Structure formats: C-alpha cells, structure tokens
Description:
Layout (H helix, E strand, L loop, with lengths): L1 H17 L63 H4 L4 H4 L48 H6 L1
Amino acid sequence: MKQMTLIAFVGALFVFASGPVMAADPIATLRGAALDIQPKAPMMTRQVNTDIREVRIYPEQPPTIPHKIRGYQIDLKTNKCLSCHSRTAIGVSQAPMVSITHFMDRDAQVLAAVTPRRYFCTQCHVPQHVNKPLVENQFIDADALLKK
C-alpha cells in the first residue's frame, strides 16, 4: 500500500514539474488563432433583410427574424415586435401572427395576451447574417432522412 502511494506521488510530482503540455505548433481554432491570442474581431457581415421566411430545419424550431431589428425596444413595458406581429396588428402589417403557443401559460391555458414567458422575442428568435459556414456542414434535414 505504501509503495503504491509513493508511486502515485512520484507520478504526480513528475506531471506537475514538467509544466503544461505544449504542442509543437499552436493549434489553430475556428477563431483563427491559438487560444492564448486575442485576435481582432472580424467585421460584421450584412444582415438579412428580405422579409422572406426561411425553411425550418426541425419541428418546433423558432423561426428566424427575416428583417433588421436594430433599435427595437423589447423590455417590460414595450415590445416593438408586437406592433406588427400581435393578433390585432396583422391585418394592417401583413406580418405573421405570433404562434398560439405564445398565448399559453405553464399550464397550457390560453390567455388573451402574450404570456410573460414568451414576451421577450429575442430569447428564441434571432436575425440572420450573410456568412459562409465556419465548418463543412453535413446536416441532413428530417424530410431528407425519411426519404432515405
């Protein structure tokens, strides 16, 4: 028992004495530099502003926002999104109405107004930017998978 404890202690001492393990070449990451280097932030790309609905990749995926939302006020008192997407505004704006799920409370009771749980739109819905993929994507849509 004492011999095993001594071997473990010597092994641990060797590991700590040798210092951090360093690769011969710093490993580049998706950031484009080693992790210990803070690269300059890339320029923001153009934001999608087409008002065309994107295809959803999986069921219940929150739709993306197909227009610019810079400057939209979304706080406890005001939600700019609802000025076009509320039940009463869609007739004038021709925007899609928020889903019925946004009117349901935790107990699936339908309310007359958007539930506080779903009031902050940008928790789930995000605008899109025109970017090239960082890595090759081999994702297969559920419909394509069912056809195989």
